[in-house]
Design brief:
820 residues, mainly beta, Immunoglobulin-like, 5 domains, nine-stranded antiparallel beta sheet, 8% helix, cell wall, LPXTG_anchor
C-alpha cells in the first residue's frame, strides 16, 4: 500500500493491530494473533479497524463473482462443525520457535518507529534470489509432532523503480511484510523438526482481514490439495479463476476490516499437505514516483486462528514423564521411589464469540496405590500458568477442573492448548500385587477425560511400568577387622558374624517376609547377635529387628526372622547380621575339602510368600589340627617315660599318641615304628585305639598290619583315615628284647647299652616323626670264683665293690636322662 505521511501514523497503528499469525496447525492452536492483539491493544482481543476509504487507481476484481457463489465453496451455517482431524495449525511459540534466514543480502527492518526494528529480517528486492531467499521457522508446533516450516520467496512483482522489499517476522509471528511491491509469491514447506525430511499434515488455514483491495491467489497445486473452502454467508470477498488455473480471492470494495470480521475471511481445509503456494498482493496500489526517503509503508501478510465455523475439539491426550522420559504414553521407572508426572492436554480451537463454549472440564482419577505429590497446575502451550482460569472441585486422588464462566466468555481463552500437570509416585507400603502382571513387571494405568461444550471424550491410556526387583540376596562373613568377605579365617572359640544383604521385592507388601540362616552344627548360633536394618531414603540405616518375630531352634542352629507383612521392606535395601561361636569340640571333619582345608560353608535364605532365594555361600576357614605325635616307653610300673631299662628276654611297650588332623579324612594314614633289630615283634602285640568321649575304642582291626621281620619295622595303615580325623589316638607296641643278638652297636662310651626308638605318622604324603625314646638294656654280671687265704678275702671285697659301682653308674645315667 502507499500512504501519505499523514496516513503513516494511521498505518503504524494498523500494522500493529492487524498483525496475525500465519498458521496451519490446529493441533496446537495458540491463537497467537488473538494474543498479540491483547498484548498490544489491551482490549480483550477486539482490534481497532481503519475505516477511512483509500483511493485506488483501479480495482480489477470489483465485478468478480462472490466467493460464496463460487463452485467449490462451502457456505457455513450455525450447524457447521469443522471435524477435529483438521487440526494442524502453524504457530510461533515464544521461547521455543527460532528463526533462520536463507540466502544472503539481509538488511535492517526499517519502520516508522525504528531504523532497525527487531521484529523482522528484511531484504531488498535487488538481493532476493527467487526460490532461495526466505526463512525457516523451527519448532512451530507444540501439540503432536514437532514441525519446522520454511517460507520461500518464489516470485514477486515490483515497480519500475526496483526499490521494494520483503521482511519476515522473527519475534512473534510466522509471516511477511511487503514494501513497494505489487505482490509476492511464497511457498510454505513443512519438515520434520531438525531435518530436511518433508512431512504431510492435515489441518486448516484461515486468511483473514482481507481489505483495501488486497487479494490472496491460491496456486493450482494448492487448490488440488485442499478439501474445502469455507466462507460465511455474509462474506464480501470475490473469487476469480485465472488463466493459469489459480484462484484469486479479493476484497473488491476498497474497504477496511479487522482480524475477526467474518465477512473478510475464508478458511482452507487440507489433508496430507506437505507444501502450499500462495500470492499476496494489493490490486489497487500503483507507484508513479520513486520512494521518498521516509516511505516505510509495509503491508502485512498473515492470518488468525479463528474460522467462520466452530471446530470440533480434538480428542484430549494423556502422557507421562519421568526423569529420563518425557511426554510418552508408556514409561518405565527406575524404582518405585522415582516420581513421575502426568500431563492431560486439551486443545481449545480458536473461535469467534458466537462459537464460545458452554463448559470445559478436565478430569482424572488416580489409582489409590499412587499419591499426588504436587499442586495441580494448568499451563498453556507457551508455559504460561493458567491455573487461575480453572477451579478444582476434586478431592484426594480425584481431579475435576472446570473453566470459569469468565474465562469461557473471553476471547483470549480460545486458540490454546491447556495442559494439566501434577506429580505422583507409588505410595510407600502399598500392596501392589494387583498390578504385577505375567511379564514380571508392575503396570500402573491411568486414563483421563474431558468435557468440551458438553461433549465428553476420553484420553488414551498411559502405562507406567516398574520392573520387579528380582535380585539374589548376598551373604558375606565379617573378618576380624570387620570387613565383609566371601572367606574369612577364624579359630575355634572365635565369634563369627555373617551379613545377609539385599533388596526386598516390591511384592513383599502384603506378603510374609522371612530371612533364615541355618548354621552348621560346629557354630553355636547366638540369638542376641541377630540384627535387621533397612536403608532409609536419606541413606541412613534403621534398626527394625523388633518389627519382626525371631524363631530360633537351638538343636539345629537355625534362626528365622519373620514379618507377617513385608511392607516396611518392600523395594528397600536391607542387611541382616547373624552370629555365633565356633565350638571347641565340634566335628570339623565333615568340612574338610579335597585340598585338606577345613571350610565351613554357610547359605541363608530370603523367603517372600512362597518364593525362596538362596544367598551365595560364605565360608569360614578353621586351621586344621597340626600336632606332632608323641612317643613314650612304659616303665616297669606302666608309666609313660622317655627312658626305661630292661633285661634281655623281657617285654618292652611303646605308645604313640596324637590328635589326627581333620585332613585325615579321605586320606591314607600310616603309623610306623622301627624297633631296631634287637626287638622281636608279633602282630598281636600292636594295638591302635581312638578316643571317643572318655573311652578308648580299639580300631586295630580296621587297619592293615605290616611287619618287616628282618628289619623289625612295623606299620599299621588305614586306607581312609576318617575314623581318626580330629580325634585322639594311641598306638601301643610291645616287643621282646632279644637274647641272642649283638648289642654292641648300641653301647655308648661309658659301656651302657641304649636302644633308641622313633615312630612316624604319615597322612597322605605328609610325614611327621615322633620324639625319641630309649631302652637301656641291663648287662649280665661276670661270674666270680671264690679266693683262698687272706688274698681271697681281699679280692672278694674288691669284686662286689666293682659291681656295685657299675650299677650305680647306670642308675646315675637313668637319673640324668630322666631329668633331661
Amino acid at each position: 500500500m502507499k500512504f501519505t505521511n499523514k496516513e503513516k501514523r494511521v498505518w503504524k497503528n494498523r500494522m500493529l493491530g492487524t498483525v496475525a499469525t500465519v498458521g496451519l496447525m490446529g493441533t496446537m492452536l495458540t491463537g497467537t494473533g488473538i494474543a498479540l492483539a491483547d498484548d498490544i491493544l489491551g482490549n480483550n482481543g477486539v482490534m481497532n479497524a481503519t475505516t477511512t476509504a483509500r483511493a485506488r487507481v483501479n480495482l480489477p476484481y470489483e465485478n468478480a463473482e462472490k466467493l460464496v457463489n463460487t463452485a467449490g465453496t462451502t457456505v457455513v451455517s450455525n450447524n457447521t462443525v469443522i471435524p477435529s482431524d483438521y487440526s494442524f495449525f502453524i504457530q510461533f511459540i515464544k521461547g521455543k520457535t527460532t528463526v533462520e534466514t536463507m540466502g544472503n543480502g539481509w538488511e535492517p527492518f526499517v519502520t516508522p518507529s525504528s531504523p532497525n526494528d527487531e521484529r523482522a529480517y528484511a531484504i531488498s528486492e535487488k538481493n532476493i534470489v527467487k526460490g532461495q531467499t526466505g526463512v525457516r521457522y523451527n519448532h512451530v508446533s507444540v501439540f503432536g509432532k514437532d514441525v519446522d516450516v520454511t517460507m520461500t520467496v518464489d516470485d514477486f512483482t515490483g515497480t519500475k523503480y526496483g526499490d521494494g522489499g520483503i521482511a519476515f517476522n522473527k519475534v512473534s509471528q510466522v509471516g511477511a511484510y511487503e514494501n513497494r511491491l505489487q505482490n509476492a509469491t511464497f511457498t510454505f514447506q513443512f519438515y520434520q523438526s531438525g531435518t530436511n525430511t518433508p512431512i504431510q499434515l492435515t489441518g486448516f488455514h484461515t486468511f483473514s482481514d482481507i481489505d483495501w483491495g488486497q487479494y490472496i491467489r491460491l496456486a493450482p497445486n494448492t487448490l488440488n490439495s485442499i478439501s474445502e473452502i469455507l466462507a460465511d454467508p455474509t462474506c464480501k470477498l470475490v473469487a476469480q479463476k485465472e488463466s493459469d488455473g489459480s484462484l484469486t480471492i479479493a476484497d473488491p470494495h476498497n474497504t477496511g476490516s479487522n482480524d475477526f470480521d467474518i465477512d473478510a475471511m475464508f478458511t482452507l481445509l487440507f489433508r496430507d499437505l506437505s507444501e502450499f503456494t500462495v500470492t499476496f498482493g494489493s490490486a489497487g496500489v500503483t507507484w508513479d514516483n520513486p520512494a521518498p526517503e521516509n516511505d516505510y509503508s509495509w503491508a502485512w501478510f498473515g492470518n488468525t486462528a479463528v474460522k467462520p465455523a466452530r471446530s470440533e475439539a480434538p480428542v484430549p491426550t494423556k502422557t507421562v514423564s519421568d526423569s529420563n522420559e518425557t511426554t510418552v504414553t508408556s514409561n518405565t521407572l527406575d524404582s518405585m521411589r522415582e516420581g513421575f508426572t502426568y500431563q492431560i492436554s486439551q486443545m481449545i480451537p480458536g473461535e469467534l464469540p458466537q462459537f464460545f463454549y458452554k463448559n470445559v472440564e478436565m478430569m482424572d482419577t488416580v489409582i489409590p496405590e499412587l499419591e499426588i505429590t504436587s499442586p495441580i497446575k494448568v499451563t498453556d502451550e507457551t508455559g504460561t500458568d493458567r491455573t487461575s482460569w480453572f477451579t478444582n472441585s476434586g478431592k484426594g486422588n480425584q481431579i475435576h477442573l472446570q473453566a470459569t464462566a469468565e474465562a469461557l466468555q473471553t476471547q483470549a481463552f480460545y486458540g490454546h492448548v491447556y495442559t494439566v500437570t501434577f506429580d505422583t509416585q507409588v505410595r510407600e507400603g502399598a500392596n501392589l500385587l494387583a498390578y504385577l502382571q505375567e511379564d514380571g513387571k508392575y503396570h500402573f494405568p491411568n486414563q483421563a477425560k474431558t468435557i468440551v461444550d458438553n461433549k465428553e471424550q476420553a484420553t488414551g491410556k498411559t502405562d507406567t511400568i516398574v520392573n520387579e526387583i528380582d535380585t539374589t540376596p548376598d551373604k558375606k562373613v565379617l573378618d576380624k577387622e570387620g570387613n565383609e568377605q566371601s572367606l574369612a579365617n577364624f579359630e575355634k572359640g572365635d565369634t563369627v558374624q555373617y551379613v545377609v544383604s539385599g533388596t526386598a521385592p516390591y511384592s513383599a507388601s502384603g506378603q510374609t517376609f522371612t530371612l533364615e540362616d541355618d548354621f552348621q552344627d560346629v557354630i553355636d548360633q547366638k540369638q542376641e547377635l541377630f540384627k535387621l536394618e533397612v536403608e532409609e531414603s536419606d541413606g541412613t540405616w534403621k534398626d527394625v529387628t523388633s518389627e519382626g518375630k525371631i524363631v530360633f531352634d537351638e538343636s539345629t542352629e537355625k534362626l528365622s526372622w519373620q514379618l507377617a507383612d513385608g511392607s516396611i521392606l518392600a523395594g528397600k535395601n536391607y542387611r541382616a547380621t547373624f552370629g555365633g561361636t565356633l565350638k571347641e569340640d565340634g566335628d570339623y571333619g565333615q568340612f574338610v575339602t579335597e585340598d585338606g582345608k577345613i571350610m565351613i560353608p554357610n547359605v541363608a535364605k530370603q523367603i517372600v510368600g512362597t518364593q525362596e532365594k538362596e544367598t551365595p555361600q560364605a565360608d569360614v576357614e578353621v586351621p586344621d589340627i597340626d600336632q606332632t605325635p608323641v612317643k613314650s616307653v612304659l616303665d616297669k610300673n606302666g608309666k609313660e617315660t622317655e627312658l626305661t631299662s630292661g633285661k634281655k628276654g623281657e617285654n618292652v611297650s611303646f605308645t604313640v599318641k596324637n590328635t589326627a588332623p581333620y585332613a585325615s579324612k579321605g586320606q591314607s594314614v600310616t603309623l610306623s615304628d622301627d624297633l631296631e633289630n634287637v626287638l622281636d615283634l608279633q602282630e598281636k602285640e600292636v594295638k591302635v585305639e581312638v578316643k571317643n568321649g572318655d573311652q578308648w575304642e580299639d580300631i586295630t582291626s580296621q587297619g592293615t598290619f605290616t611287619n618287616n621281620a628282618e628289619e623289625e619295622i612295623v606299620s599299621w595303615t588305614l586306607a581312609d583315615g576318617s575314623v581318626l580325623a580330629g580325634k585322639e589316638y594311641r598306638m601301643t607296641i610291645t616287643g621282646t628284647l632279644k637274647k641272642d643278638v649283638d648289642y654292641s652297636a648300641y653301647m655308648d662310651k661309658t659301656g651302657n647299652i641304649l636302644i633308641p626308638n622313633i615312630a612316624k605318622e604319615t597322612i597322605g604324603t605328609k610325614e611327621k616323626a615322633t620324639n625319641q625314646v630309649q631302652v637301656a638294656v641291663q648287662q649280665e654280671k661276670p661270674t666270680l670264683l671264690p679266693a683262698t687265704g687272706v688274698r681271697q678275702t681281699k679280692e672278694s671285697n674288691v669284686l662286689p665293690v666293682f659291681a656295685s659301682a657299675s650299677v650305680l653308674s647306670l642308675a646315675g645315667y637313668f637319673f640324668v636322662k630322666g631329668r633331661r
